[in-house]
Every structure is written in C-alpha cells, then in structure tokens.
Amino acid sequence: MFQLLPGTGVRLPHHAGTLRFGMSEHAAQWAVSSICAIRPGSVCGTAWAFSGEYLGLTIDVWGAPEGLHAQRLGYVELLRISRDSSGAEPKTPALVAVVHEGVDLFGRPRDEIARHLPPESRVNHGTGLSGGYIQSIGLRSPFWSIPQR
Question: Can you list the alpha helix ranges (DSSP code H) found in the chain?
C-alpha cells in the first residue's frame, strides 16, 4: 500500500520507507529501488528524475526545479499503467492500494473519492463522465510549483 502524506511525501509499501519532500536523489532512489527497479528519466526544469514500476503502477519521482532546492525531492506521482493500447481509463480497481485518509483512491470509482483527495494533489480523473477510476495522482513539495510536462 502507498500512503499519501500531503506536505510530507508518500509512504512506500513493504516498510520501504517514505519518500519525503526535501530528501536527496540518492535517498529517494534507494527507497524506491527497495520495491522495484528504477530507470533514469528527464523532466524539463528539474534537476533530476527517475521512475519505477510496481504492481501495475508507475512511480515517477522528480527533483525540485533548478535553484535553491534543486537537489531535493520535489514531486511524486503514481500512475496506473494502461495495458489497453487505446489508453482508455481504468474500469477496475488497481492491484495495489493508494491511500489517503483511509480511502483507497485507486480502488474506488472516481465519483466516490472526490472528497478524499488532498487539496494540493494533481489528479488525472480520466475522460469518462462516471464509473471510472482515477488514472494518476501526484503530490508536490510545498516549496515549489509543478513544471509543465
């Protein structure tokens, strides 16, 4: 289970630790690599980025923008991996829980979880009108804004 900790970061499954905003790239890589293989990435305007896959989720981790906090963790996003070539939104719960306030955000239809979403989160609700599940959720450090992808 992943647990969203707004303002702090994301607690990883299997006692792998917590991705804490402000931690170093090395510490963030070590935590994520304890549950899955990681691969380097690139996000324009950030000092570093990497990702991994865990039970049908992609974990995207970014450093803060260049500047004062450039070498520190600034953003974590959890995305459901679509096995459908059409990219259609998920119609079933995810294999692993992503929890905030005791509610599995990827395990219940999007209509049921709206009030449980952290206000500072960045959510891709999908394109359907009802019945589907959210596709991704991201949290950012309180000390920076999200760069455009």
Answer: 25-33, 110-113
Q: Stretch 20-44: mean pLDDT, rounded?
A: 94
CB 78, CB 58: distance < 8 Å = yes
- Residue-wise pLDDT tens digits, 9-27: 999 999 999 999 989 999 9
Cα→Cα distances 146→54, 77, 83, Å: 24, 11, 27
Structure tokens, 26: 């090395």
DSSP string, 56-102: TEEEEEEEPBSSTTTTBEEEEEEEEPP-STT-PPP-S--SS-EEETT
Nearest Cα to 10, choosing from 64, 74, 81?
74
Q: Are 16 and 3 in contact (CB under 8 A)?
A: no
Phi, psi dihedral angles at 112 (to 5 degrees)? -85, -15
90, 132 in Cβ contact below 8 A?
yes
**Using one digit for the tens of pLDDT, what is the confidence trace for 95-129?**
899 998 898 988 888 888 877 787 777 776 655 54
Domain-wise residue ranges, the chain: 2-140
